[in-house]
């Protein structure tokens, strides 16, 4: 099996956050440092992926770097630049903005690696599709990504969808949630700090039957809708994956990454049967 190297992606511009996500502190140190120190003990060599303009940044300069050499927007630049630098290696790729990531999530990826699949990735908790930025990319997958990019398609997720990818179920709720906005940052900081919020949850159809009630007040430390649903799914045995439901927050349909606050009214709407 090919050697396994690690790559922390830190080349983004953090436009939605309004400040460098690599520098944010959730655990008493910059998130880039936390990500690197989580990943590096598990791989033979570990690097931070940066754009050319970032290589002298004081934080990024503290770590071994792979500077983008491939002219494409987005994370494909980091993936393919790493592949060019070390074409014989497989890469455990990790976005730097995953403050809820735990080491067991990475260890599970490594343990699942085999010779039959070109990549190992987790299914998203939100849409069931592969998570490309916490995944193992074998050289064959990166060769295919290079061809895809040459053809004008730069999305790493599409490559995993259309390839022989081994998909795993997430081990820890919320571990793969990217934190992209100040609101999401506040929510995850509240969760990490152990702060609880109280909100009203309303159920319909089979979910109401399983919960044994139409509505309840729930206490949770989860800061977004997706992990809240996983908490309730485990409690009541709801049979639906998140991608089969719709969720409304305070009267409006909302994404699974929607931040929560005390006093919110959440409605889970299961699929309609019959016809």
3D structure, described in words:
- The structure is a single chain.
- By secondary structure, this protein is an alpha/beta fold.
- It folds into 2 domains: 4-168, Spore Coat Polysaccharide Biosynthesis Protein SpsA, Chain A, CATH 3.90.550; 193-269, Beta-grasp domain (Ubiquitin-like (UB roll)), CATH 3.10.20.30.
- The protein is 28% helix and 23% strand.
- The chain is built from 8 helices and 12 strands.
- It has helices spanning 31-39, 75-85, 103-112, 139-150, 156-161, 182-192, 205-211, 225-236; strands at residues 4-9, 45-50, 65-67, 90-95, 119-123, 130-137, 165-168, 197-203, 215-220, 246-249, 252-253, 265-269.
- A 7-stranded mixed sheet has the order 3-2-1-4-6-5-7, sandwiched between helices. A 5-stranded mixed sheet has the order 9-8-12-10-11.
- A hairpin with a 6-residue loop joins strand 5 and strand 6.
- Helix 2 packs across helix 4.
- The longest helix is centred in the middle third of the chain and has 12 residues, at 139-150.
- The chain is globular, with a radius of gyration of 20 Å.
- The model has no long low-confidence stretch (mean pLDDT 93).
């Amino acid at each position: 099996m090919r050697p396994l190297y690690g790559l922390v992606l830190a080349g983004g511009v953090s436009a939605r956050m309004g400040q460098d996500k690599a520098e944010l502190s959730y655990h008493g140190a910059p998130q880039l440092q936390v990500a690197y120190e989580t990943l590096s003990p598990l791989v033979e060599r570990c690097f931070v992926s940066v754009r050319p303009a970032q290589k002298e940044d004081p934080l990024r300069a503290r770590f071994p770097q792979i500077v983008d050499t491939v002219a494409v927007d987005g994370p494909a630049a980091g993936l393919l630049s790493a592949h060019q630098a070390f074409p014989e290696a497989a890469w455990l790729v990790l976005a730097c903005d995953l403050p809820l990531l735990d080491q067991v999530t990475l260890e599970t990826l490594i343990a699942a690696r085999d010779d039959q699949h070109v990549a190992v990735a987790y299914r998203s908790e939100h849409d069931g599709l592969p998570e490309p930025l916490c995944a193992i990319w074998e050289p064959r997958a990166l060769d295919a990504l290079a061809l895809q990019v040459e053809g004008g398609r730069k999305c790493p997720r599409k490559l995993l969808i259309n390839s022989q990818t081994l998909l795993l179920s997430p081990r820890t709720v919320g571990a793969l949630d990217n934190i992209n906005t100040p609101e999401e940052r506040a929510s995850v900081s509240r969760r990490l700090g152990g702060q609880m919020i109280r909100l009203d949850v309303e159920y319909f159809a089979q979910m109401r039957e399983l919960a044994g009630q139409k509505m309840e007040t729930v206490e949770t430390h989860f800061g977004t809708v997706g992990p809240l649903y996983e908490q309730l799914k485990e409690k009541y045995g709801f049979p639906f994956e998140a991608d089969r439901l719709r969720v409304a927050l305070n009267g409006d349909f909302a994404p699974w990454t929607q931040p929560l606050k005390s006093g919110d009214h959440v409605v889970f709407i299961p699929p309609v049967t019959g016809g």
